[in-house]
């Protein structure tokens, strides 16, 4: 157990220590990630068990457990770590803080393993909130000149983590225990409803869903692609989905179709649709992929929201598929950026024309993310859409809009990169592309063989076995139709606008949608801006009250006391006649006192 | 039992401090070392008392006096916990002030007052009689008055007087509360009044005194104003030790000794919530780095008050650990602010930027302490914040728990704003005092200052990782 | 045992001898070392009081009657009585006289011979008041003190001093009228004014006689309150103290108002115990003087006027101590008399030092003198803390005893008000500190140096006394407990 957390930490320090020597860095990183994978597989295949470390302060208890679900997530994360760390070691050869960057990356891997392995909610929180600091530090490395991104990232993730903490504390209060295995399913009603909402907000927020998503596109502006590949690509998605899966399947007893499940689906669908819509309008590949990541996490959230076994396992399956595709796309984008020097779509036109392998990989990864039939994404999407259909048709329609926009977005991207005419050509340097090949292979593996789906069902001990053939034909037909419409619209768009780059402008400049996009650019739709302006207004209100309070302390009370002093002294004005008058009055008062009784 | 060790722990700083001005006339270095030695003596005595606590033969001593005034000193778990925290942080602050104070005048008075303050703090922590508690309480107000007025300018003296008047008024009202108890029980001795129920009006009056000393909302105005004092003073008094006296008194009186009506388990957390949220709001808009940290101290103190007043064991142990976490981390923050102010001669955040390049170690120490206050694992702040909020939720008051989570978010917001504006972002410096080359030469601040800041940063981290040690001591308090 | 007789005789004979020496010896010689003469008298008084206290304590005496110039054998001929309380008062008189003389050695240049004569007569008056056994001789010595203080105030011929002393003279006449009429009424009832005869008069009296006695008690309280400078009758005090020479105002504020006023009220309380109206009257006057004294002191700009109003306020605390009528209250009041004597004389000697070194006593013209005059400022801080009742110093313990007495005798609210009122004391003394000592030194005061000679010695001595009594007060408590008083 400690080995799983300790190994990445140790190798992180080793990499930082030997940051000058390339050779050792490569071997150490490969060795550690492969070892990590093997150990994860061992845990996955091994039987589940629990241990605890008694070094915790009073209210805490570090306990670890391995179940089928955690084993599966461990394997997924280990695979992604190999790809990401290989790419990062390659990419940060020249970077100034390369060693420090690798150290932070490996610490985040350790934290991910920690979260996946922890057996009680408090330990999950312990590793979960550690990630905030690592993310803040990583984003600060590159650009200490404009630290806005890291500040935004820390604030947003802190908000989501603290909401999660509130949810966890409420759950512990209701269930009277923090051990996940001991919690019997908490009904989602009354306090449980509030607890569920907080936990889900925290989990989905980490994955990049609606209220807490805004740091990912901002990171795409400033942070290097390696960060994007690691965090939104792999780490955040896994953590968020794992916690959502645990809370839906083990901690809470979510009734599908209940108010809370509809709310989560709505959040998921909105993120899905909005993310894809924003991705359409991007002029830059990194930002496009960032928005795609946000919107795909929306689809997964919708899956969890349905609460049925089909929906949840579909969501987990979609997560597996999406993280692999996104990680691959980000790494590919990083490689292209290194070659072309920029990620501007207009400059990357037709970059993959001359490199068939990279083109195939890009096609496989994007289509699978899209949910193209026969690829992994399709099965996952159908499970989710089927479950959403069971809940309500209206939500399905919104989901289909999302699918439509996502299809448009990725087809546009594919069209630009593969078939556009442009200057720069990408030559096949296989060495760099290895992680991409691995990931596209995994994506293909996912689509064909049913093993992962069966594995998910056993993990979620779902009763119905519906591997392979998607349940509801209606949703399948609907998706196929939507994809067809997307292709026609794409053709219509390119003919109208003349070039692939702005083939979606006809959507972008449609009357209502135009000012929606305008607002989005100006940040009106960004919850972080709402939070900052809200807190700013609250702050200035409090400052005004503070001026009042310090006026009372500095002027009010002293003035009052001096005033009474002045009044008294005017009364006793130093003239003898007034003194004598006082003496007589004093005597009279005394006499009254004595004879009043 | 070994009560005389406690008496040494209290009297050496109190009486030894009187020698400092005399030594200071002849040899400055010797005076600095004796000041550190005097504080170290009280730390050693506290450590010795620790064995007493674990061997559960508590060190205690009693002097009989008429009229219920017989006072004594007793080192139970709470006292030793507070004594160790206070003296540890004071030692580091005395070290820090070698570098900070060396070119100002009336240093002798400064060192004398700091050491007398540490003595008074030890007195408060160990005393078992309400009047003895009041005596040392007032001595600490006296030291606070002289130390805030260190720079002798018009504004600082006015602020020092304001602080003195507010805290002494609070103490007097608290004394009236003590007399209320005296009227009912006929004695001031805490040992004789274990578990006695005291009327609500006495609790309210004593609470007034506690809130004035721990600067909670209606009575907090003196703490941000005390930013005019030198940094080691603000960090010693307004971050680490002085403000903890009020919270300690709350724990000593209303948790360990007297039985108080249950309604206070909702009243005090609500006051704490109001104070926390209000001061977090003000801190967000403040531009003077020291005032931001002062407001942050006020809102973090409300967290401690919440922990102690929520009536759950988890909350109380969390509150006590929070005292430790906040003392080390906030003292570190104030000392870093001191280094920045010392080299830039300004406290205005808008005139700073990109200092991390020239002050890497200070930036790192600041980050460590900041993370601990934000409550990010593995720093101690995370565990304590978790426990405190779990306490209030366990007590059934979910709305307050949510409010405090909101306050924790605002803490993150204003601390990140401060950190980013000072240490990162485009290079910026006070143009009226520096030209570009002059600013380039601005270095880290003297070695001793950076070392003490690093110690505090690493202490927050180490305490977090090995947090079961202090928490064992803290959990023994509840008995 | 027999030394006690000599010790008792010291209080009256030594001052008389000093007057004699002062007038017989050649003028220039006396002018030069007048302070040595008066100093020795003061030292003698302190030593005698201390010795008498130890002697009486050693053989458990509570009272010792003695008389001068006539042998003891004839019963009733002993005119004077020594009790521990009066010995403490005598000790305070000696101490304040010594301080006043030490300050006078610097401030008094002219009229030294008459200064010594008047000082000695005042000393005799005060000692006599404290030692006497019957009301009438008490009144006689009261007037001796009054007259000598009028003349002392206006001794140095400044017009302001004349105005101050005239006010004091006129208002004191009122006091004399009140006290004499009261004595007459009581004499009508009892036929003799000795303390032991008056004791039981109130129980025996019925209807009209009872009213008559109530009237006389009221008049007595009014008269002695005038002399003590309590609030409705306090107006003469600041003018008199401000205009007099600092050495004289030390005497006036330090001890005269306490002996002439407070000791008188102490007698009233002990002669008429348990009279509810007396306690209410004293409590009302006490609280009124605490608040008004402090509020008025807050707005003065003259150093000595602030300290004078502070005396008015502190007298209020002593009256509160007397008003609760229990032994703890009396002990608290006497303790506060002693600590008040100590810190009041310190503040006035600071005033003398400032007057000598800076030339003015207007606090707006001063500032930041702490760095230039360290001893004076340290002693003023100690005096400020002791006045405000901040713990480690004597003022705190005496105020604590008074509040405990108030609380145990049932008037809890009064105790609370008195306690919170001491925040005003802090306020005006903090203002004083800020304006005079604790701040930046302005240009024109850069070359001010510390005061030399008598004043400096006195300041240090008084600071030591205040802090020593503060720290060692628990021993006093233990001693009192052993004597069964608490």
- The overall strand count of chain A is 4
Helix-strand category of chain B:
mainly alpha
Write down the overall mean pLDDT of chain B: 89
Q: Which secondary-structure class do the elements of chain A indicate?
A: mainly alpha
The secondary-structure element order of chain A is HHEEHHHHEHHHEHHHHHHHHHHHHH
Q: What is the rounded distance between the termini of chain A?
A: 88 Å
Number of strands of chain B: 2
Adjacency order of strands in the biggest sheet of chain B:
1-2
For the largest beta-sheet of chain A, the strand count, sense and barrel status come to: 2 strands, antiparallel
Assembly state:
heterotrimer
In order across it, which strands form the biggest sheet of chain A?
1-2
Helix and strand sequence of chain B? HHEEHHHHHHHHHHHHHHHHH
Structural shape of chain B? globular
| Helix percent band of chain B | over 70%
Task: Tell me what the structure shows.
- The complex is a heterotrimer of chains A (597), B (479) and C (486).
- Chain A is an all-alpha fold.
- In chain A, strands 1-2 form a two-stranded antiparallel ribbon.
- In chain A, α5 packs antiparallel against α6 and α13 runs parallel beside α16.
- Chain A is elongated.
- Chain B has 479 residues and is mainly alpha-helical.
- Chain B has a domain of 217 residues.
- Helices cover 75% and strands 2% of the residues of chain B.
- Chain C has a two-stranded antiparallel ribbon.
- Helices cover 77% and strands 1% of the residues of chain C.
- Chain C has 486 residues and is an all-alpha fold.
- Chain C has a domain of 213 residues.
- The chains are: A mainly alpha (597), B mainly alpha (479), C mainly alpha (486).
- The interface between A and B is large, with 53 and 58 residues.
């Amino acid at each position: 157990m400690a080995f799983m957390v300790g190994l990445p930490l140790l190798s992180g320090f080793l990499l930082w220590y030997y940051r000058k020597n390339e050779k050792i860095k490569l071997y150490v990183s490969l060795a550690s990630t492969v070892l990590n994978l093997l150990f994860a597989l061992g845990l996955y295949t091994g039987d589940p068990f629990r241990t605890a470390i008694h070094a915790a302060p009073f209210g805490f208890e570090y306990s670890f457990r391995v179940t089928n679900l955690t084993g599966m997530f461990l394997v997924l994360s280990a695979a992604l770590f190999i790809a990401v760390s290989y790419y990062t070691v390659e990419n940060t050869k020249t970077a100034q803080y390369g060693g420090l960057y690798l150290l932070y990356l490996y610490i985040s891997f350790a934290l991910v393993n920690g979260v996946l392995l922890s057996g009680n909610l408090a330990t999950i929180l312990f590793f979960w909130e550690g990630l905030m600091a690592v993310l803040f530090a990583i984003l600060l490395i590159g650009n200490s000149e404009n630290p806005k991104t890291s500040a935004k990232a820390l604030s947003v993730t802190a908000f989501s983590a603290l909401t999660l903490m509130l949810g966890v504390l409420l759950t512990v209060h209701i269930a009277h225990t923090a051990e996940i295995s001991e919690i019997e399913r908490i009904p989602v009603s009354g306090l449980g409803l509030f607890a569920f909402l907080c936990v889900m907000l925290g989990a989905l927020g980490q994955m990049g869903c609606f209220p807490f998503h805004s740091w990912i596109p901002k990171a795409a502006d400033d942070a290097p692609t390696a960060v994007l590949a690691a965090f939104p690509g792999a780490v955040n998605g896994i953590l968020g989905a794992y916690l959502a899966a645990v809370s839906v399947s083990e901690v809470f007893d979510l009734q599908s179709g209940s108010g809370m499940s509809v709310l989560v689906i709505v959040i998921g669908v909105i993120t899905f649709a909005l993310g894809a819509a924003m991705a359409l309008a991007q002029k830059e590949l990194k930002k496009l992929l960032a928005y795609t990541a946000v919107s795909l996490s929306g689809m997964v959230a919708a899956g969890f929201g349905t609460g049925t076994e089909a929906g949840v396992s579909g969501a987990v399956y979609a997560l597996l598929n999406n993280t692999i595709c996104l990680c691959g796309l980000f790494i590919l984008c990083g490689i292209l950026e290194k070659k072309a020097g920029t990620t501007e779509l207009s400059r990357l036109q037709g970059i993959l024309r001359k490199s068939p392998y990279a083109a195939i990989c890009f096609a496989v990864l994007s289509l699978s993310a899209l949910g193209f039939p026969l690829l992994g994404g399709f099965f996952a999407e159908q499970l989710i859409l089927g479950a959403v259909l069971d809940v309500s048709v209206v939500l399905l329609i919104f989901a289909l809009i999302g699918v439509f926009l996502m299809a448009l977005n990725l087809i546009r991207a594919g069209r630009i990169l593969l078939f556009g005419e442009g200057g720069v050509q990408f030559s096949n340097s296989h060495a760099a592309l290895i992680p991409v090949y691995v990931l596209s292979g995994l994506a293909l593996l996912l689509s064909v063989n049913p093993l992962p789906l069966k594995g998910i069902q056993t993990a979620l001990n779902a009763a119905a076995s519906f591997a392979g053939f998607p349940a509801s034909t209606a949703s399948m037909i609907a998706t196929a139709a939507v994809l067809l419409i997307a292709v026609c619209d794409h053709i219509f768009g390119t003919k109208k606008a003349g070039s692939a780059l702005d083939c979606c402008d006809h959507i972008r400049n449609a009357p209502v949608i135009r000012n929606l996009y305008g607002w989005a650019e100006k940040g009106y739709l960004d919850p972080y801006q709402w939070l900052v302006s809200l807190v700013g207004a609250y702050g200035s209100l409090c400052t005004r009250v503070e001026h009042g309070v310090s006026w009372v302390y500095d002027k009010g009370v002293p003035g009052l006391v001096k005033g009474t002093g002045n009044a008294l002294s005017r009364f006793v004005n130093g003239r003898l006649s007034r003194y004598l008058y006082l003496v007589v009055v004093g005597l009279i008062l005394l006499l009254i006192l004595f004879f009043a009784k | 039992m070994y009560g005389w060790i406690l008496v040494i722990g209290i009297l050496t700083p109190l009486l030894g401090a009187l020698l400092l001005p005399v030594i200071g006339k002849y040899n400055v270095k010797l005076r600095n070392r004796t000041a550190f030695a005097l504080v170290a003596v009280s730390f050693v005595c506290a450590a010795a008392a620790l064995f007493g606590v674990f061997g559960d033969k508590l060190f205690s001593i009693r002097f009989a006096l008429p009229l219920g005034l017989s006072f004594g000193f007793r080192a139970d778990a709470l006292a030793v916990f507070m004594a160790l925290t206070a003296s540890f942080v004071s030692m580091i602050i005395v070290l820090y002030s070698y570098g900070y104070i060396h070119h100002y005048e009336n240093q002798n008075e400064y060192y004398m007052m700091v050491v007398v303050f540490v003595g008074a703090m030890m007195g408060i922590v160990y005393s078992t009689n309400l009047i003895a508690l009041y005596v040392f309480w007032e001595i600490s107000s006296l030291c606070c008055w002289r130390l805030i007025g260190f720079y002798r300018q018009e504004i600082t003296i006015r602020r020092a007087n304001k602080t003195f008047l507010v805290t002494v008024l609070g103490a007097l009202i608290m004394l009236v509360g003590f007399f209320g108890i005296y009227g009912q029980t006929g004695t001031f001795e805490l040992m004789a009044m274990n578990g006695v129920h005291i009327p609500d009006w006495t609790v309210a009056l004593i609470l007034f005194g506690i809130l004035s000393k721990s600067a909670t909302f209606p009575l907090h105005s003196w703490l941000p104003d005390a930013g005019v004092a030198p940094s080691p003073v603000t960090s010693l008094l307004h971050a680490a030790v002085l403000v903890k006296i009020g919270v300690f008194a709350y724990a000593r009186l209303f948790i360990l000794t007297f039985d108080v009506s249950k309604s206070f388990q909702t009243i005090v957390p609500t006051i704490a919530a109001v104070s926390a949220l209000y001061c977090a709001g003000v801190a967000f808009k403040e531009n003077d780095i020291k005032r931001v940290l002062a407001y942050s101290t006020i809102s973090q103190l409300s967290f401690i008050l919440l922990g102690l007043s929520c009536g759950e064991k988890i909350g109380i142990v969390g509150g006590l650990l929070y005292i430790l976490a906040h003392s080390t981390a906030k003292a570190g923050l104030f000392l870093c602010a001191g280094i920045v102010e010392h080299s830039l001669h300004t406290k205005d955040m808008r005139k700073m930027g990109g200092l991390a390049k020239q002050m890497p170690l200070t930036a790192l120490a600041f980050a460590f302490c900041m993370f601990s206050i934000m409550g990010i694992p593995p720093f101690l702040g995370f565990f304590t914040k978790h426990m405190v909020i779990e306490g209030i939720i366990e007590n059934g008051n979910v709305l307050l728990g949510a409010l405090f989570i909101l306050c924790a978010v605002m803490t993150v917001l204003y601390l990140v704003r401060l950190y980013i504006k000072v240490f990162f972002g485009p290079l910026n410096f006070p143009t009226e005092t520096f030209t570009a080359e002059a600013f380039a030469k601005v270095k880290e601040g003297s070695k001793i200052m950076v070392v003490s800041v690093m110690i505090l940063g690493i202490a927050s981290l180490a305490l977090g990782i090995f947090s079961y040690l202090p928490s064992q001591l803290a959990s023994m308090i509840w008995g | 045992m027999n030394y006690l007789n000599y010790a008792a005789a010291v209080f009256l004979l030594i001052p008389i001898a000093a007057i004699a020496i002062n007038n017989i010896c050649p003028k220039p010689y006396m002018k030069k070392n007048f302070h040595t003469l008066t100093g020795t008298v003061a030292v003698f008084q302190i030593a005698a009081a201390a010795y008498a206290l130890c002697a009486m304590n050693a053989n458990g005496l509570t009272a010792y009657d003695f008389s001068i110039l006539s042998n003891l054998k004839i019963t009733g001929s002993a005119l004077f009585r020594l009790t521990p309380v009066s010995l403490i008062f005598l000790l305070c008189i000696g101490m304040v006289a010594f301080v006043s003389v030490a300050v006078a050695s610097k401030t008094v240049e002219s009229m030294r011979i008459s200064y010594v004569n008047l000082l000695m007569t005042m000393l005799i008056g005060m000692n006599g008041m404290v030692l006497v056994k019957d009301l009438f001789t008490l009144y006689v010595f009261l007037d001796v003190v009054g007259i000598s203080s009028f003349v002392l105030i206006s001794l140095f011929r400044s017009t302001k001093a004349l105005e101050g002393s005239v006010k004091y003279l006129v208002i004191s006449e009122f006091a004399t009228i009140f006290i004499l009429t009261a004595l007459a009424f009581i004499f009508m009832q009892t036929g003799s004014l000795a303390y032991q005869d008056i004791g039981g008069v109130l129980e025996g009296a019925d209807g009209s006689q009872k009213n008559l006695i109530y009237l006389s008690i009221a008049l007595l309280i009014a008269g002695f309150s005038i002399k003590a400078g309590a609030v409705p009758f306090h107006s003469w005090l600041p003018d008199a103290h401000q205009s007099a020479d600092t050495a004289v105002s030390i005497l006036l504020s330090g001890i005269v108002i306490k002996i002439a006023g407070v000791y008188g009220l102490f007698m009233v309380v002990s002669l008429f115990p348990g009279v509810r109206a007396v306690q209410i009257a004293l409590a009302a006057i006490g609280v009124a003087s605490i608040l008004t004294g402090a509020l008025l002191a807050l707005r003065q700009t003259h150093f000595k006027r602030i300290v004078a109003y502070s005396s008015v306020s502190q007298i209020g605390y002593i009256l509160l101590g007397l008003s609760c009528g229990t032994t703890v209250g009396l002990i608290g009041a006497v303790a506060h008399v002693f600590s008040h004597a100590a810190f009041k004389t310190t503040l006035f000697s600071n005033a003398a030092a400032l007057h000598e070194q800076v030339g003015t006593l207007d606090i707006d013209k001063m500032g930041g003198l702490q760095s230039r005059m360290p001893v004076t400022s340290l002693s003023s801080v100690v005096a400020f803390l002791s006045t405000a009742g901040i713990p480690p110093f004597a003022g705190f313990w005496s105020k604590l005893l008074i509040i405990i007495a108030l609380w145990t005798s049932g008037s809890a609210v009064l105790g609370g008000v008195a306690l919170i009122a001491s925040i005003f004391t802090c306020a005006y003394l903090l203002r004083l500190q800020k304006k005079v000592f604790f701040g930046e030194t302005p240009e024109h005061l850069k070359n001010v140096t510390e005061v030399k000679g008598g004043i400096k010695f006195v300041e240090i001595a008084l600071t030591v006394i205040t802090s020593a009594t503060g720290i060692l007060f628990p021993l006093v408590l233990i001693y009192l407990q052993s004597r069964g008083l608490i």
